[in-house]
């Protein structure tokens, strides 16, 4: 699935490590080379047999991440869902591109829950959302999943309850679920990430959800970035189709 991308979005995709292919300009036809005269009785040269090159070993993709086990005393799944945060509150609503819906909610496990756009993981998340145009939507929210630290008060709520409250408050057009841990917390499914990515999910209130790789995994496995971009394009297409209908 392809999208019409401007120069800035193409730059963001390059930051993600995704190559955007464009049709090359047509090449001019080569000038004909005059034939060289040959001797009448010269023997035809027999080309030496070509030796087939050994195929290059295929690069094995980095295995998909597995959800970590919950520590003792943690809630089911070991994760708590934080309150949604607006990622781009300074965006002008009048300049929001059409077809993005009323709001977006991104759910992922973040190493910096209080600052989801901090560090390398946060920068890649920011680039992903900017490539989608969501940096121009003031109602783009993120709800981070975190594991309670031993001896410290828990921050957040049980994921199912927190998600239900967020959906009722924000009424997002799409929930973007990044990573296996987030997918299992949001969907309650034990399916592998590849199968969860292949489907479009409906949450309890009917809100659509699309699953993709989380930025932390993409930093470890950059070969998966193109597949992640395809997931993001599918989420955008679903929202635009709903808005157009």
Folded structure, characterized:
It is a single chain. The chain has a domain of 161 residues: Uracil-DNA glycosylase-like domain (Uracil-DNA Glycosylase, subunit E, 3-Layer(aba) Sandwich). With 245 residues, it is an alpha/beta fold. About 7% of the residues have low confidence. Helix content is 31%, strand content 12%. Strands 1, 2, 3, 4, 5, 6 and 7 form a seven-stranded mixed sheet that branches. The two termini are 20 Å apart. The longest helix has 20 residues. The chain is globular, with a radius of gyration of 25 Å. The chain is built from seven helices and seven strands.
Helix and strand content put the structural class at alpha/beta
Helix count?
A: 7
Sequence of secondary-structure elements: HEEEHEHEHHEEHH
The N- to C-terminal Cα distance equals 20 Å
Shape: globular
Kindly report the CATH topology of the domain at 75-146 and 156-244.
Answer: Uracil-DNA Glycosylase, subunit E
Task: Give the rounded overall mean pLDDT.
Answer: 82
Strand content: 5-15%
Biggest pleated-sheet summary: 7 strands, mixed
The CATH homologous superfamily of the domain at 75-146 and 156-244 corresponds to Uracil-DNA glycosylase-like domain
Low-confidence stretches: 39-45, 66-76
- Write down how many β-strands occur, each being a DSSP E stretch of 2 or more residues: 7
Percentage of helical residues? 25-40%
CATH architecture of the domain at 75-146 and 156-244: 3-Layer(aba) Sandwich
CATH C-level category of the domain at 75-146 and 156-244: Alpha Beta
Radius of gyration: 25 Å
């Amino acid at each position: 699935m392809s999208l019409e991308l401007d120069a800035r979005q193409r730059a963001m995709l390059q930051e993600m490590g995704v190559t955007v292919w464009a049709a090359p300009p047509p090449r001019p036809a080569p000038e004909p080379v005059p034939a060289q005269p040959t001797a009448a009785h010269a023997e035809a040269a027999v080309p030496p047999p070509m030796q087939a090159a050994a195929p290059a070993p295929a690069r094995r993709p980095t295995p998909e991440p597995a959800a970590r086990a919950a520590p003792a005393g943690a809630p089911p799944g070991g994760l708590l869902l934080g309150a949604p945060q607006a990622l781009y509150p300074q965006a002008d609503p009048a300049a929001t591109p059409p077809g993005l819906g009323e709001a977006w909610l991104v759910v992922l496990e973040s190493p910096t829950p209080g600052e989801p756009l901090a560090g390398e993981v946060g920068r890649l998340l920011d680039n992903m959302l900017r490539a989608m145009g969501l940096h121009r939507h003031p109602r783009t929210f993120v709800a981070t999943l975190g594991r309670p630290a031993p001896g410290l008060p828990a921050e957040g709520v049980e994921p199912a309850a927190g998600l239900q409250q967020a959906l009722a408050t924000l009424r997002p057009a799409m929930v973007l679920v990044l990573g296996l841990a987030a997918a299992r917390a949001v969907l309650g499914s034990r399916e592998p990430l590849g199968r969860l990515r292949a489907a479009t999910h409906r949450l309890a209130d009917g809100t659509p959800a699309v699953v993709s790789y989380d930025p932390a995994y993409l930093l470890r496995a950059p070969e998966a970035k193109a597949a992640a971009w395809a997931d993001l394009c599918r989420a955008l297409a679903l929202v635009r189709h709903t808005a157009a209908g």
